[in-house]
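User: Sorry, folds how?
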Amino acid sequence: MIDINPNGTGLPGIEQLRVIVGAVMTIGLVLSVLALIVAAIVWGFGANSSNPHLASRGKTGVMVACGAAIICGAAVTLVNFFWNVGQSV
């Protein structure tokens, strides 16, 4: 039987990589909020100017921004979940 687990100290620079990944997640969340604000403004302009194409693009942008925020926020949990599923196979 082979038992291999992730090693957090096996390679030099792992801690710095964790810091970088955390910073990238933060940037992703900040950009998601910015995209949500811009898309909501576009949606509002489209709805108030009777422009259904612009309103539709704004709605799509809101959904994409929310999806991006969900993925950024849940990335660690998703990876851990699938890691545990893979370990049970």
Observations:
- The helical segments are 14-48, 52-87.
- Residues 34-87 form one domain.
- Residues 4 and 66 are 36 Å apart (CA to CA).
- The mean pLDDT is 93.
